[in-house]
Design goal:
alpha/beta, RbsD-like fold, six-stranded mixed beta sheet, 6 helices, 6 strands
Length: 189
Amino acid sequence: MKFLVALSLFVFSWMPMNAANPIPWQTKVQQELPLLGHRNWIIVVDSAYPLQTSPGIETVETGTDQLTVVRDVLRSIAQSRHVRPVVFMDAELPFVTEQQAAGVTKYRSEIKAALGSLPVHSVLHEQLIQQMNQTSNSFHILILKTTLTIPYTSVFLRLDCKYWSDAAEQELRQEMKNRPSTSSDPDAQ
């Protein structure tokens, strides 16, 4: 009985300390990235991005500027052996003026440099949020909230398989359509 009381006290005393000392966002990315695969998302957002309550969405406050977080996440993904990023950004961003949001011009230039040669798909912000709500019912989404205070600057990274390309998938599907399998071993034919 004394053991159970001691164990309970330990657990209850540990819980608030753990909540008060959250895992740093970099550690969180390093811990989760090996678990994430195609159809998972990592999103780097500005300060006003809403806290979503869908079951598969996890939000982490970074306390860091957005460009630093984007660069670090992209570097981590590049070093992974299994995933690559597909980049989506808000279609509204090119239309935000400097008068509406001071610093937006500099931000657009810096995010373009940070993304390098990665193609960027522009989608309306509300559609991206709706897609996150739908996707999170089956797949995990990690949201990294930053200190940026410029609207429509979220960087949505849909993870895709690094070792299997879209072209390879299309080729496989075409082959399956053209040649129905008569065996469970395709190399046996």
